[in-house]
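We emphasize that the prediction below concerns an isolated chain of 256 residues; any contacts that depend on oligomerization or on bound cofactors are therefore not represented. The input was used exactly as deposited, without trimming of termini.
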Amino acid sequence: MHPEEVPEVVEHPAARPPWWQIQQGSRRSWRRALTVAAGSFAVVTALGVPFGLLWHALAPTVPVIDAGDNGIVVNDPSPEQYIAADGWLTLLGIGFGLLVAIVAWLLLRRDRGPALLLGVVAGAGVGVHWVAVPIGEMIGKDAYEQWRASAAQGATYLAPPEVHSLGPTLIPAFVAAIVLTLLAGWSNDPDLDHPGAQPGYGPNHGQYDEPYPSYNSTPAPQPVAGDPLSSGWPVGPDPTAAPAPPAPGPADQPRG
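Result of the prediction step, given as a token string:
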């Protein structure tokens, strides 16, 4: 015999806690959120100093020549060095944004969330645009300006690298935002505390350490002792019952 289909369980809306109670266990204080945002912003912004030094060391210098009345021009028929600084800043910015996002995600495990995202992304943008690039362009600029003031026509020089567009300075913030968003999307824990944790569990769940009640919380009907119809299974003939008398045939019909 095959069991009959189990009837669909009716959902009880009142079985789940209200939404404000569910979020209360995962909510962090505003003071902690602001501290995380400000601290991550300051650290990532300070990392713009070594980033600018690295960019200056890798970006090639630009050969220039004093053309007299035409001023200082690039001394190369195909000046790749002129835009090489932007290319190096873009490549290094991708690595910088990826690195700071992953390190912040791993080190600040208990503080993952919008505050961390805001601090890291803002720090990457400010640290590259207003710290790294000015420092990288400042190195060797005084000597270059002195040469321009005293150079004779036809004199050549290797000018320090310089950024010519805004886009490369925004790459680190863009990459950091994407990486942190993807890491948050792949996390199973609603508090983003432990990668791979089961939903509803984590250190920030103070009063909701137990899993939330299921939506389908109506219990299935239980069989009643002595009542074969309550088990949900088809009921067959009782082997202990007396056999039924045979049905009358045509020969047993009375003749008129």
